[in-house]
Amino acid sequence: MNPTMAKAAIQKLAKKLGADIRDHSPMTNIVGEQQTDGVVLAVVTLADGTQIRGQQCIVTAGPWTNKVLKRSDGDNFKLQPIATFGTCWKCKQELHSQNTFPVFIKYGYPEVYGLPMMDPQDVVKICRYDGPVVRTPDSGARMRLRLRESTCKTTLQRTSRTSTRVHPTKWTTACTA
Q1: What is the span of the domain harbouring residue 128?
Q2: Which of 33, 126, 149, 174 could be joined to 114 by an S-S link, Cβ 3.0–4.6 Å?
Q3: What is the pTM of this model?
């Protein structure tokens, strides 16, 4: 799946249903506002002062979520983001299909998961899910660069010796750097 095309398709459908899409619109505040009929609306204030009200508010701020949802009374969410890293590997075409290359998850250290990609074809995305804790949102970018320096091949080799949930020879031999 092409993420850019998927996002565009979802936005197009959302607009047809009445959604107001505002890309690159920094927000300064989100609060709940009690209405006279008892309904609570989410009120989002943008940096330009515009206020948007709705019955639902979906926050997709990644490591900035704690900052976005910070409450003045100190009763805040306790979210702890971690840095993750994924790579795409080209596979032998005859080994890449829904029947021969299923989604897999390897629990324990290191945590690894993988899934076949549909666009581009014959590619598998393999991700580690054991990254370092992101202390501040801006530190996440630096951590991702450090994670890239460690090769996924090492992770795959280490995983193939320790995994009992995955048939390692199917995916370690199918993938090439």
Answers
A1: 85-176
A2: 126
A3: 0.48
